[in-house]
Amino acid sequence: MSDPTLARARAGDEEAFRRLTDPYRRELQLHVYRIVGSTQDAEDLLQETLLAAWRGLDGFQERASVRAWLYRIATNRSMDALRASRRRPEGTRRMTDADVPEPTRRAEPIWLEPYPDVLLEGIPDRAPGPETRYETKEAVALAFIVGLQHLPPQQRAVLVLRDVLGFRAEEVGDMLDTTATSVNSLLRRARASFESRLPATGRERAPVPDTKLERDTLERFADAVEAGDIDTMVELLTDDAWLTMPPEPWEYQGPAAIGVFLRDREVSRGRLRLVASRANGQPAFACYLPLPDTGIARPYALFVLALEGARISAIAWFADSGVFPHFGLPRTLR
């Protein structure tokens, strides 16, 4: 028996279409973000997905659920965007090697933006099915998203659909117009490449959000940044901590190397003001740079931190302040 809401939507009832699709908007946007790595592109591609669904309702034959049908559209739109190379991994400030201290390593540049925790609100906490390999919290963490961006588009989509969302191989094959055998082959290759990039397990877990331990650690970090106290910032780092600057290729590991980089930045740009936020399920800080003689601080960068106990194991430094509106952050500070 056909769904009466679907029938009304097919007849042109926009309110019925919204009732049909609204329960899946937030999770679809997160799904697109996992594949393309961009908050702004995820928002655009979600709108493209919903428009394509509205226009294609007559072609929906109800062999799959509405949710699976929407995931099919969103996944294919995302892969098309990747193949079209609409987003190039170029540095936001066009820095050169002469602008930064010698890094620990130069990584393959990838386009990546942080994802506001506020956009995670309202996503149903679906019980993981037998096909899933990763918990929801792990599958939104920045290290997880970085690992995905190194996979080819089709492998990326298959790994997310199978190991994160728990769709069966046959369902994924229908979404990608291929066979379950091909899906399983793509998944094996994706897992081998992807899991080699994930951080080692068995390390001290991050403190639970909004506990005293996390608050104390973040307060020490924020106070040190605003005071220009590089020594305290370095003391908070784990011995193998990383500082990265997506999409720039320079990466620094360890307190000594990160300290050299931070001191170089401190000299070149001056003190910062910080506003607390959260991204990718992790603590974050929006950074504002005061403009001389104006009483105003402008957006400068966003730091996303990974914590281990009372120490910081990773700092992702995003120089593109264009994501600030997605976090509800002010355009300027007084």
UniProtKB/TrEMBL annotation:
The keyword Nucleotidyltransferase applies. One of its GO terms (biological process) is response to stress. Residues 87-103 have a biased composition (Basic and acidic residues). Pfam families: Sigma70_r2, Sigma70_r4_2, SnoaL_2. Keywords: DNA-binding, Nucleotidyltransferase, Sigma factor, Transcription, Transcription regulation, Transferase. Residues 148-192 form the RNA polymerase sigma factor 70 region 4 type domain. Residues 23-88 form the RNA polymerase sigma-70 region domain. Residues 84-103 are annotated as: Disordered. InterPro entries: NTF2-like_dom_sf, RNA_pol_sigma-70-like, RNA_pol_sigma-70_dom, RNA_pol_sigma-G_actinobac, RNA_pol_sigma70_ECF_CS, RNA_pol_sigma70_r2, RNA_pol_sigma70_r4_t2, RNA_pol_sigma_r2. The keyword Transcription regulation applies. Residues 219-286 form the SnoaL-like domain. It comes from the Bacteria. Coiled coil: none annotated. One of its GO terms (molecular function) is DNA binding. Belongs to the sigma-70 factor family. ECF subfamily. Interacts transiently with the RNA polymerase catalytic core formed by RpoA, RpoB, RpoC and RpoZ (2 alpha, 1 beta, 1 beta' and 1 omega subunit) to form the RNA polymerase holoenzyme that can initiate transcription. This is RNA polymerase sigma factor.
